[in-house]
Design goal:
Strands 1-2 form a two-stranded antiparallel sheet. The chain is elongated and about 50 Å long. It is mainly alpha-helical and 103 residues long. Helix 1 packs across helix 2, helix 1 packs across helix 3 and helix 2 runs antiparallel to helix 3. The protein has one domain.
């Protein structure tokens, strides 16, 4: 899992770095998919012209940005405040793409 670098310090292998990044953004993708699916079910007529994939991408990107901001602010991931910001950002992303005036 760890490899000794030239400086003698332990470094993650590239494959493990990829898994860490994917694990970091997995909650954002999951919340984006779940929120979009529920929004399309609840507001079926209002969102019929907006594609599911477009809504999912917008919501997931907004949630991912909230996770990165939480990591920068708190210095670690997994804080409850970060997850609250992620849910808020997801709702704002869905609103921006699906419900804002003059869309």
């Amino acid at each position: 899992m760890f490899a000794l670098g030239q400086s003698g310090r332990l470094q993650l292998e590239q494959f493990h770095v990829l898994w860490h990044v994917l694990d970091f953004f997995a909650p954002a993708l999951g919340v984006g998919i779940l929120a979009t699916t529920l929004a399309k079910l609840v507001w079926r007529s209002e969102l019929r012209l907006v594609g599911w994939l477009r809504l999912t991408l917008g919501a997931s990107v907004a949630a991912g940005l909230a996770l990165v901001a939480g990591l920068l602010v708190f210095g670690q991931d997994g804080r409850v405040a970060t997850y609250g910001a992620m849910v808020t950002a997801t709702a704002l992303g869905l609103w921006w793409i699906g419900f804002r005036p003059f869309r």
